[in-house]
Structure formats: structure tokens, C-alpha cells
Amino acid sequence: MVSDSNPTPGSLPSALRRGIEQFNQGDYYACHDTLEAIWMDAETFEKPFYQGILQIAVGFYHLSRENRNGAAILLGEGSSRLRRFEPEHEGVAVADLVDQALVWLALLQSESADVTALSSAIAQRRPVETSEGPLPLPQISVQTA
């Protein structure tokens, strides 16, 4: 089994830690590859946790390629899959990640969404300007002990 009972940032499984780092650096494709390897070997209960994170990562990868539909589908599916693990699992702030993904999903689904501008912001690793102010790029937070 991949999980620890009360993980701290230093005790996260190394592949999960690497996947989180890749996600937070905007390397969504590499994050997918890293987490897919964990997901394939995970216990049945853990599989949706890893799959949810990797679906959100692939959603952002699709968005970086200006694929609005693919991004929307995967952000929604990944968020739904992670709900049962809220608020925290494996030391990961799941509720925060889901909230971030849903904000981006709502932005994508708005009529005023400029997918080219969103894609550019992801590629340049900068916040997106919205009518409500800058929207930062998503980050996976790890709970500290």
C-alpha cells in the first residue's frame, strides 16, 4: 500500500511527492506519467485518489493545448473522483485542489472564456486576469504536521 497513516511532507511516498512537484511546476504531462505508475499499483481504495489528481493534471495539460472540451471533462471528472478524499488524504489538501479545479472549470465554461489566453497563462506560468482579479495557477498543497 502506498499510504502512511499520518504522513508529513517528508514522509510522502517519493513518487507522490515527485508528482506533486511536477504539478506545481506546471509539468502536467510528467505529473500524469508519475501518478499513473502509482495509480496502477495502488490498492483499490487508493486508486481514485491518484486517478483524480492525474485527471486534473491532464485537464490542465489539455488546457495548455487549447483543448477546452478535454480540459473541462477531465477537471470535472478528477474533481468528482477526489470528493470522497476531502478534506485531506495522504497529507494532500484535497479539498483545496478540488476547489481550485472547480474555479478553473467554471472559468472554462463561461461564455467569456478566452482559451488562448488561458493556455498562454499556463505556458508562461502566470496568473490569469479575470473580472474578479488575478486567478493563480493551481497548486497542490501538502498538509504540515
UniProtKB/TrEMBL annotation:
Protein name stated in the entry: DUF309 domain-containing protein
Native species: Vasconcelosia minhoensis LEGE 07310
One Pfam family hit: DUF309
Species lineage: Bacteria, Bacillati, Cyanobacteriota, Cyanophyceae, Nodosilineales
Highest taxon, organism lineage: Bacteria
Alphabetical list of InterPro entries matching this protein: DUF309, TTHA0068_sf
Gene3D superfamilies, sorted: TTHA0068-like
Classification via PANTHER family: EXPRESSED PROTEIN (PTHR34796:SF1)
